[in-house]
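Today's session is about reading a structure prediction critically. Students often jump straight to the picture, but the first step is always the sequence itself: look for stretches that repeat, for charged clusters, for runs of hydrophobic residues. Only then move on to the predicted structure, which in these notes is written as discrete structure tokens rather than atom positions. Here is the chain we will use throughout the hour.
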Amino acid sequence: MMSRSLLTVLCAAALTGCAALEQGFGVPVASAARPRTENSGSTTTPPVLPSSSAATPSSSPAVVEERARQAYETGRWDVAEGYYLQWTRLQPNDAVPWFQLGNLYAEQGRLDAAERAYREALRRRDEARTLHNLGLVQIKLGIGALREAQQRLPPDDPARRETREFLQTLLEAVR
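Below is the predicted structure for this chain, in token form.
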């Protein structure tokens, strides 16, 4: 079993990269600054394609990719999501559209969906930057789960105290 100090050091190192959770994920779609959204948690709602005027099945992958990038850069999340999903269907063995879809979900705070998209990207191509973003999402999900556990555990439960101390140590390591 890992010592508490080793675990703290490892978590601190991992959480240093968590700034990417607040600033955007991984390799950006484009170099332009992305619009900010509030991280409101994750959702399990399945994605829906935008209307047929926004995504046409006959579009080439390059056209769909460019439209997705433009929609992403301008903060039209629902339109970008539809194009990324269309791109995944047009190029089912390509990891890039799944990676970009994961970035979109992470940017929106849809962490469960981001985790699934990054895993799909990894199934197609094992790449370090995808693992990096997946790890950041998992850390964010883990912190959320620990916070919820701490709130839900009875006040006299030793696990509540331990969870509170662990969260405090993690959050102090980030500062």
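Discussion point for the tutorial: The CA atoms of residues 9 and 58 lie 51 Å apart.
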